[in-house]
TrEMBL record:
This is BRAT1 protein. The keyword Cytoplasm applies. The lineage of its organism: Eukaryota, Metazoa, Chordata, Craniata, Vertebrata. It comes from Chloropsis cyanopogon. InterPro entries: ARM-like, ARM-type_fold, BRAT1. The gene is Brat1. One of its GO terms (cellular component) is nucleus. GO terms for biological process: cell population proliferation; DNA damage response. It is found in: Cytoplasm. Keywords: Cytoplasm. Belongs to the BRAT1 family. It comes from the Eukaryota.
């Protein structure tokens, strides 16, 4: 104990690091804070910290010019306060903090004095500290003292909301949200919620937005506060509708506003703030629409009206008559930020069934964007994404009310636009057009109207042409699109006759060519992914055809320099093995007993796998220089071993060398231990092991300790390669070692 006290005195006292010139180095100050934090698990350190002036140093470091140090100081104060109250308070806390431990009283006094000071930076530091404190105290054990603390500062916080001179409103909003999440305020009664209501009224729309969306996510929040929070979020959208002079029944979203509507109108009338406010509002609305359980009702029809209005303002297709509408329209013209945000919310609204009455008008807006030459590639991509979502909704609506004519007309218009976009000189447009086509096929391939429009258009020919596109991203997207289209044109039972252009053999041959010869990795990855999808969906024919197909693919893939292509090949093999076992085994998905491992189905399985040359690919991949490939190969082999040897393995591996097959397996064992299978891999069958011999492979699966190899591969080198020290060395190597970088990395 005396040695501990001496060490603590040196750490906290003037004779310690903070008394010398080294204290000017931010890394030393960081180290000091880290040292204090480590010491605080010992009670003597906590007492000494308060008695040697250590707390004052931490208070000072809250305002350190290094953000790293300032943040660490704030987090340390949170830790000191919570630790002192938890460890030193033997009974329930009173409603006064005068009975609290000395360290806790010092921190509370510091907070109160800072909040009452005339220094804006001190006020902001204390608000951030309080926000961190309430943000970290979620457990019920914190409820009593956090409530006491809040009662001490509540009046001061309320005064900040009313004083325009205090520029800490964003921090205030975050503080109130963290307090609202605290268990101390789960009761919906009390003055706290009145303060939240006041904040929603007095904060600007930009400042109140994050608070409002956070409140709407809470399980326990008074319903009137929820409604008020939703009203705050909807005010800008309401203003848009009113500015556009919509018909009376759609004149606005809200019956009344929380704050002065003039404030929102002023922000939307300003070129500098209009886009920012709308983008923030739209991001919050998208977040709300993604929630499974929203405890307030969104006015989805009016919201959709507002979104359509925003999009029409942005592309100049709407000419409002009101002065406010004209100003907003000028501010939003060709504003891609707002367009993309509005399209994201539009896509999310497709899940809401209330909006079906507007579906015709909605597609008018979407088609206008798809057709317009002024639509930027990034906005077009978002438009495609929203259109695919709403096409699914359109099919659902049509099937329920038999309005097939509207569906057919919209699909025809979409395919006309798609044909033009597939021929765009801009590769990003061609790429997003192919992605849109793939999305449509995934969702609508079973719909008769979709198939008719697809087959009567030029889309099939244009898509196949893009397999030769000069841009590798486009070629990859074309592979994916053609692969999905084949499910409609080639592999479906009712596939139409399309001549030689779109037959299965020509597509497989073309994809094999891409897999073998394309110089870029993206198209090759797309091919192996499509091949795996076809295999999963049973599109590769009978077992014999599938066996030959898989064999050809794996022989190509194992030589590929792209590790993701090789990994995709292993996924293909895994699917093939699983399907073949299900076909040939009497009990699908279940391992056979050891008594029947020599039965005909087992022998047939081994023969199929050997003919397909799977074992050479799998064992060769175990020593792949890219660890994910080796891990996946080992996973597949462990699965096969579990099928062929469900109960036990060969007891004595030494005995297997008594036969030619056994000697080959012994060679394989030694080579795998050395991790050099890739270098010693037999190519002519004269050396090593015969990977196409069923007896050898049965022995290999039983004799080689695949589980040990599995553990070794999964152990990886993350403990070295991804250690903090290694990562920071990588950062410093990339950005150069200068003083500031060194401090931040520390």
């Amino acid at each position: 104990l005396p040695q501990q006290e001496e060490l603590l005195a040196r750490l906290f006292g003037q004779e310690g690091p903070r008394g010398g010139a080294a204290w000017e180095d931010a890394s030393v100050r960081s180290a000091w804070l880290k040292g204090v934090h480590s010491m605080l698990q010992h009670q003597p350190a906590l007492h000494l910290l308060c008695s040697t002036g250590g707390m004052d140093v931490i208070f000072t470091l809250q305002g350190d010019p290094s953000l790293f140090v300032a943040s660490a100081a704030s987090q340390l104060l949170v830790h000191v306060l919570t630790f002192s109250l938890e460890s030193e308070t033997p009974k329930a806390l009173s409603t006064k903090d005068c009975d609290w431990p000395a360290c806790a009283q010092m921190i509370v006094k510091h907070i109160e004095e800072s909040l009452q000071s005339s220094s804006a930076s001190h006020i902001e530091q204390s608000l951030k500290l309080l926000s961190s404190l309430f943000g970290s105290c979620f457990g019920s054990c914190y409820a009593a003292w956090t409530q006491v603390l809040w009662l001490d500062i509540e009046k001061q916080i309320e005064s900040f909301l009313l004083e325009e001179t205090v520029q800490a409103q964003p921090v205030l909003a975050n503080l109130l949200l963290n307090v609202a999440r605290s268990p101390a305020f789960c009761d919906t009664e009390g003055s706290f919620w009145a303060l939240v209501t006041s904040a929603l009224e007095h904060l600007t729309p930009v400042q109140a937005g994050p608070l409002a969306v956070g409140l709407l996510k809470l399980c326990k929040c008074p319903q009137d506060v929820r409604i008020q929070a939703l009203t705050v979020l909807l005010q800008p959208m309401d203003c848009i509708l009113r500015a556009a002079s919509q018909p009376l029944e759609c004149a606005g979203l809200l019956d009344q506003s929380v704050s002065d509507p003039v404030t929102v109108e002023s922000l939307l009338s300003s070129k500098t703030s209009c886009a920012g406010l709308l983008c923030q509002t739209l991001a919050h609305l998208e977040k709300l629409l993604s929630l499974k359980h929203l405890r307030v009702d969104l006015p989805c029809v009016s919201l959709l009206h507002s979104l359509m209005t925003i999009l029409q303002f942005c592309n100049g297709f709407l000419s409002p008559t009101s002065p406010l509408g004209s100003t907003i329209s000028r501010n939003l013209i060709n504003c891609s930020r707002v367009q993309k945000s509005a399209l994201d919310v539009l896509a999310a609204l497709s899940e809401k069934k209330d909006c079906d009455t507007l579906i015709g008008s909605l597609f008018d807006v979407l088609l206008a964007y798809l057709q317009s030459p002024n639509t930027s590639p990034t906005v077009l991509k978002k438009t495609f994404q929203a259109t695919s979502k709403w096409l699914v909704r359109l099919q659902e609506v049509s099937s329920s009310n038999s309005q097939w004519q509207q569906t057919e007309k919209i699909l025809e218009d979409v395919f006309v636009v798609l044909q033009k976009r597939l021929c765009s000189p801009c590769w990003e447009v061609r790429d997003s057009s192919l992605e849109f086509l793939t999305a449509m096929v995934k969702c609508l391939r079973d719909q008769k109207e979709f198939r008719q429009c697809l087959l009567s258009s030029e889309v099939l020919r244009l898509t196949e042409n893009l397999l030769e596109d000069p841009e590798s991203y486009v070629r990859a997207s074309a592979v994916t699109a053609v692969g999905h289209l084949a499910l409609v044109t080639c592999f479906a039972p009712e596939s139409p006759g399309l001549g030689n252009q779109y037959n299965k053999e020509s597509i497989v041959a073309k994809f094999q060519e891409i897999l073998s010869t394309d110089s870029e990795g993206f198209p090759r990855r797309a091919v192996i992914s499509i091949f795996t999808k076809w295999l999963r969906e049973g599109c590769t024919g009978q077992l014999e055809d599938t066996e030959q197909f898989v064999s050809r693919v794996t022989q190509t893939v194992e030589r590929d320099l792209d590790w993701e292509v090789r990994l995709g090949g292993l996924e293909l093999v895994e699917v093939f093995c699983s399907q073949t076992i299900c076909q040939l085994s009497q009990c699908p998905y279940a391992p056979v007993s050891s008594a029947v491992t020599s039965s005909t189905p087992q022998n047939e399985l081994l023969q199929v796998f050997c003919r397909a040359k799977l074992f050479g690919f799998l064992f060769g991949s175990l020593c792949d220089c890219d660890k994910p490939v080796g891990q996946r190969a080992c996973d597949v082999l462990v699965g096969l071993r579990g099928h062929f040897y469900p109960m036990s393995t060969l007891e004595n591996p030494q005995e297997i060398e008594d036969s030619p097959a056994g000697r080959g397996v012994a060679w394989l064992q030694r080579t795998l231990r050395q991790g050099s299978l890739a270098q010693n891999f037999p190519t002519d069958g004269d050396a090593g092991v015969d990977f196409q011999d069923p007896e050898s492979m049965m022995l290999a699966l039983g004799a080689i300790d695949l589980l040990e190899l599995h553990d070794e591969l999964n152990k990886s080198s993350d403990h070295v390669e991804e250690s903090p020290q290694s990562l920071l060395q990588d950062i410093l190597a990339a950005v150069g070692i200068i003083e500031d970088n060194g401090v931040d990395c520390y």
